[in-house]
Backbone:
């Protein structure tokens, strides 16, 4: 059971970070993108939309994270199922992508040059840091939509120290902490006064692909089963 609590300033949070029932609040969000190795793929040849990855020229050149290990991959798969149907994933499987576990692993595999591009990757943490270091990797925010993964925080109704829990919740939504998350990890955050690097697309400019949490819960087993059937592992 969750306790109702609205963090300080929450009325200014962007959609997606707010909970109308004031139970859970998004303290960060990260996008799923297409990474590609800039030494192996000239910018004009890089994918622009998810369907570009279906081109046979990407056969044996892609890497993809597995939904059996990363919940955000389940969200990504459902987002594109809702957009293009399961046929999208059946066609992608014909290009025989390398399968990895963590949603950060496609970025690592692309940076190393083991694969030319990724069929999904989180653009925060590793990939974001490597791009800013000047590693040979770029991130494509597909024009047909970007899955955005929100991380919520909440206070349980049985919290032993509810006042401390409310103070901590207010703390992680302060401008200082939210700015730190944006600067250090490349995350999108709730605080409206946070500034982002100029090479980071504005959240308002993205076509965000949203999957209802209830659909994710209901269809997770289906996604894992279909993925194994299509990709063989």
Residues:
């Amino acid at each position: 059971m969750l306790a109702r609590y609205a963090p300080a300033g929450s009325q200014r949070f962007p959609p997606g970070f707010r909970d109308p029932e004031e139970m859970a609040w998004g303290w960060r969000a990260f996008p799923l993108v297409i990474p590609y190795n800039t030494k192996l793929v000239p910018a004009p040849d890089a994918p622009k939309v998810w369907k570009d990855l279906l081109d046979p020229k990407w056969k044996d050149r892609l890497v993809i994270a597995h939904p059996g290990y990363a919940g955000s991959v389940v969200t990504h798969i459902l987002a594109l199922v809702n957009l293009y149907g399961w046929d999208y994933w059946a066609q992608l499987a014909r290009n025989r992508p390398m399968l990895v576990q963590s949603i950060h692993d496609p970025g690592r595999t692309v940076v190393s040059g083991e694969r030319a591009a990724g069929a999904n990757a989180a653009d925060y943490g590793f990939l974001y840091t490597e791009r800013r270091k000047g590693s040979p990797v770029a991130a494509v925010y597909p024009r047909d939509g970007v899955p955005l993964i929100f991380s919520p925080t909440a206070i349980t109704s049985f919290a032993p120290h509810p006042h401390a829990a409310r103070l901590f919740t207010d703390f992680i939504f302060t401008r200082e902490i939210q700015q730190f998350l944006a600067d250090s990890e490349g995350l999108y955050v709730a605080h409206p006064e946070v500034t982002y690097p100029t090479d980071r697309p504005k959240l308002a400019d993205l076509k965000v692909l949203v999957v209802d949490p209830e659909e994710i819960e209901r269809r997770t087993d289906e996604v894992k089963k279909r993925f194994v059937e299509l990709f063989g592992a």
User: Anything to note?
Assistant: The chain has two domains: 8-28+161-205, 29-147+212-231. The chain has a mean pLDDT of 95. Residues 8-28+161-205 form one domain.
